[in-house]
Amino acid sequence: MSTISTPGIGSGIDINAIVGAYIDAERVPFEARTKEQEDRYVNQITGYGTLRTAVDTLESSLAKLTESDTYGGMKMTLSSSSYFAATIDETADAGSYEIEVQQLAEAQKLTSAGFVAEDPVGEGRLEISLGSDTFEITVAADATLDDIKEAINDATDNPGLSASIVTDDTGAHLVLNSSQTGLANQITIKAFDATDTEITDGTGLGKLQFDSADVAGSQMSETQSAQDAIIIIDGSLTVTNDSNLIEGAIEGVTFNLTDTNEPGETTRISISEDSGQINNAVKAFVDAYNNYIETSKSLQYVNLDADITAPLAGDATLRMMDRQFRGVVSSTFGETGINSLSNMGITTNRDGYLEVDSSALSEAIKSNTEDLQNFFIGTDEEPGMAVKLEAQLQIYSGADGIVSTRVDTLTGQVERLDIEREIFEERIATQEAQLYSRFNAMDAQVASLNNTLDFVTSQLKNLPGVVRNNKD
Fold it and tell me: Flagellar hook-associated protein 2 N-terminal domain: from which residue to which, for each copy (predicted)?
């Protein structure tokens, strides 16, 4: 008997079609159900991602409103930036001042007489002072001017003196530059010979002697004298400082001097309350809150006629967030003064968005910043609106917030669907193999019976004595 290699060839039945119909009867509804579930979960995950962005933006907008510096901040303007830069801190008070930069602080610079570069300078030691700090270097008998330069620069206790060599037609000159400005940081150099006797006659190491108290009688030349910075405030108050960075002359103000004024010329510095900082912070919050409301509405939108259902329509978490946030924003804080958003010109329209009356807000900022601070930040007895709203937002935002937890749950459900699909495919493959096995066995049985029938029929036809009866 021949082997049947094509399903159904023995019986004439389309086994592939029958098995395919059985499998499709299970696969089609399964795939439709899991795809619908996956699409719903993925859309919800995307929706929560959009929501989390809006929540994070709203939380960020509260940062300035919860900082006390926002309400007591000052701003500073200069009539010119040509003579000094200035910064202010929280201790600065409102006021204006006329500043004349009369003199800049300078660091001292010395230059020696010319030496033959290769010749030894002389044995001994140098005692070098920069202001109140002193260090020493030992000079060997064969040391050149370059060796002395290196010894000065390499000294670990050098307080800020740099040495270099400049060579001109008269020889090599040792040049000393102080890194510290001001009269208090002048240079003094004493030279001692090999017997540790101070050299006063200008020989050997004595050529490097210098006394700031007697510049004319010194061996080294002063090419730049040390001097203090001097500024005149309001034409009558003189401030002297050893550096060009002046602090404390005006409380809360730091000056960094860069150039001197012409005599009688001044630069005005004006310090005033920075109301724009509060205004900007409040409006940034309003924009972020309205963005949250818009995001929430779009995620919950439903239009049955157009068959539109947003991914978080009917979502209990989002509805709870809306109620809590609106509750905080619409609350009053305190008994009197500016104790609600409406008191500063901010109202809620019929669609839930905040609207700002800029004139009313500016007036509230101008009239009572302390009330605004108490409203947004709070007092010792009660936290303010911004602090409370920030606390509510933090429940939902962040890696451990409710929104992230919800996303993790939905992601887990998508992963479970993938596992369910794998299990289904394994089961359906087994079932398909079983169906083919059964139908192929049946097909083989029918084929065998048909072959037997054909054989019996042919044998009967060939039996002796079997005569066909043909009638005329």
Answer: 11-108
Full DSSP string of 58-72: HHHHHHHHT-THHHH
Give residue 2's pLDDT: 42
pLDDT at 303: 84
373 and 360 belong to one structural domain:
yes
Q: Which amino acid is at 265?
A: E
pLDDT of residue 469: 52
Domain of residue 219, CATH code: 2.60.40
Dihedral (CA of 452, 458, 462, 465) sign: positive
Please choose, from the candidates 242, 272, 270, 271, the residue with its C-alpha nearest in 3D space to the C-alpha of residue 257. Answer: 242
The edge-to-edge listing of strands for the beta sheet with 133-139 is 133-139, 124-130, 187-192, 210-211
Burial of 212-245, coded b for 16+ CB within 10 Å and e otherwise, reads beeeeebbbebeeebbbbbbbbeeeeebbbbbbe
281 and 374 part of one domain: yes
Given a contact cutoff of 8 angstroms between Cβ atoms, the answer to whether 344 and 332 are in contact is no
Q: Report the distance separating Cα 437 and Cα 210, nearest Å.
A: 113
Which of 215, 243, 273 corresponds to the end of one domain?
A: 273
How many domains does one find in the chain?
3
Question: Is 463 part of any domain?
Answer: no
Residue 248 and residue 367 in one domain: no
Tell me: do 359 and 375 sit in the same domain.
yes
Together in a domain, 405 and 438: yes
Instruction: Identify the helix (H) or strand (E) that includes residue 242.
Output: none
- CA dist 227 and 106 (Å) reads 5
pLDDT at 404: 84
- What is the distance between the alpha carbons of residues 37 and 247, in angstroms, rounded to a whole number? 68
In our burial notation (b when 16+ CB lie closer than 10 A, e otherwise), range 127-144 reads ebbbbeeebebebeeebb
Whether 315 and 362 share a structural domain: yes
- CA dist 313 and 48 (Å) reads 12
Same domain, 112 and 220: yes
CA-closest candidate to residue 390, choices 69, 57, 72, 70? 57
Residue 389 burial (CB < 10 Å; 0-12/13-18/19+)? buried
pLDDT value at residue 234:
97
- What residue ranges of the chain have pLDDT lower than 50? 1-5, 9-10, 472
- Pair (112, 141) in one structural domain: yes
